Amino acid sequence: MDASGTIRQRTVAAVAEDLVRSLGDTVLRVAVDGVDGAGKTCFADELASVLEDRGVAVIRASIDGFHHPRAVRYRRGRSSPEGFLQDSFDLAAFQRLLLDPLGPGGDRRYVTAVYDVHAEVPVEPDVRVAPTSAVLLVDGIFLHRDELCGCWDRSIYLDVEVAVAAARVAERDGTDPDPAAARNRRYVEGQRRYHARCDPRRRASIVIDNTVLEEAAVVTP
Predict the structure, then answer these.
(1) 144, pLDDT greater than 60
(2) Cα first-last separation, the chain
(3) Contacts (Cβ under 8 Å, ≥6 apart) of 181
């Protein structure tokens, strides 16, 4: 590992080195998982930048591009934790259009989004062709669930204290920073159910403590 740079920069560099060592003549599918506010998108973007500086082709995607429409997401009720866990994403489309084409035997023709959750409208699929050797970096919640955990060649879990994550989301979205607030029940309890059923810390290839952003460090190699 390069001895220069901040703790976070060294951590990102070490993860990049791990992925480079795992590269072959196919696409390496990598998940960046964590609760809302864990810092998944930023970490994945930083990792992508380091990989690209090393000449690696990177495909960036997020499970957020595969949200279900509002009617499906809230069919169990607006505050339902089970609805948050089970109904947020179109997992079939996520696998069929992104993960499977970039997996073993896939044709490398992939799509990174089918729905714009902010505008609440479907998006026209933009079909692209992946190079033979590349890294697919996907950020998002619930990526170590049973339906998906077998799809990743490597996976990262960003571990963050609940209160810290809630404060970050509040700063970003203007929500209540109290994890125990009634309006946060859907999300906090949904994540608790996910962790109880899937134990993403155990399933991940790499666990990183991202509670203090500038001190992000690997805690489970």
Answers:
(1) yes
(2) 14
(3) none
Beta bridge partners of 60: 137
Apex CA 45: angle with CA 87 and CA 112, to 5°? 45
Number of C-beta neighbours around residue 73 at 10 A: 19
Q: Inform me whether the pLDDT recorded for 103 exceeds 50.
A: yes
pLDDT tens-place string over residues 68-94? 999 999 999 999 999 999 999 999 999
Identify the pLDDT of residue 3. Answer: 53
What letters, b where the CB count within 10 A reaches 16 and e where it falls short, cover 16-55? bebbeeebeebbbbbbbbbbbbbbbeebbebbbebbeeee
| Strand 27-33 to 134-139 pairing | parallel
pLDDT classification of 2: cutoffs 50, 70, 90: very low
For residue 8, is it left (φ>0), alpha (ψ between -120 and 50) or beta? alpha
Structure tokens at 78: 């607006």
The amino acid at 62: S
- Residue range of the domain that includes 179: 7-220
CATH number of the domain within which 183 lies:
3.40.50.300
Quick check: is 2 in a domain? no
Q: Which two tokens stand for residue 158?
A: 């960003």
Answer yes or no: is 98 within a domain. Answer: yes
Residue 139 lies inside a defined structural domain of this protein? yes
Give how many domains the chain has, as a whole number: 1
Instruction: Judge whether 211 lies within some domain.
Output: yes
Amino acid 1 reads M
